From TrEMBL:
Residues 7-68 form the HTH asnC-type domain. InterPro entries: AsnC-type_HTH_dom, Dimeric_a/b-barrel, Tscrpt_reg_AsnC-like, Tscrpt_reg_AsnC/Lrp_C, WH-like_DNA-bd_sf, WH_DNA-bd_sf. GO terms for cellular component: cytosol. One of its GO terms (molecular function) is sequence-specific DNA binding. This is Transcriptional regulator, AsnC family. It comes from Filimonas lacunae. SMART domains: HTH_ASNC.
């Protein structure tokens, strides 16, 4: 796929550097990669237009903000053809931060972030149970996240 996008070594270096520090200025990144800040600006714009760069996100310690429960929920669908419909409904639930269509035991695997067990109960009992097409769910509560990182991109 990267070959079809016509990305070069500099593009991959820019992507890697910005995944590590999205706040770096184009001028500082240019110095680090031995090109001008203008070149960085043009390359980032190109990567955005190609859909490779989809914006920047602020990395937040959710526990410090009072979100103490992270759960992963395996969803069994009545029929796999219901995936798109169910995904659309799941997107409406703000506590759900990630939805994946998977192989294996579950049709879908989602990540949910809640302030407490009562909020998780509400999501499971009051929100997920209303969605047509979900046969049943299996919930795994996260006790600790050892690390979370981006993939190392290479040309």
């Amino acid at each position: 796929m990267a070959g079809k996008l016509n990305l070069d070594k500099l593009d991959f270096q820019i992507i890697q550097e910005m995944m590590e520090d999205a706040e770096i200025s184009y001028a500082d990144l240019g110095k680090k990669l031995f090109v001008s800040g203008g070149t960085i600006h043009v390359r980032i714009k190109k990567l955005q237009e190609l859909g490779v760069v989809k914006g920047t996100k602020l990395s937040v310690d959710l526990k410090l903000l009072g979100y103490d429960v992270i759960a992963f929920i395996g969803i069994y669908l009545e029929k796999s053809s219901l995936y798109d419909t169910v995904a659309k409904e799941l997107k409406k639930i703000p506590e759900i931060v990630r939805v994946n269509y998977t192989t294996g035991n579950y049709s879908m695997f989602i990540e949910v972030v809640c302030k407490d067990i009562q909020q998780l109960r509400f999501v499971l009992h009051d929100e997920l149970q209303k969605i047509k097409g979900i046969e049943r769910t299996e919930t795994l509560i996260c006790l600790e996240e050892s690390f979370n990182r981006n993939v190392l991109v290479k040309s």
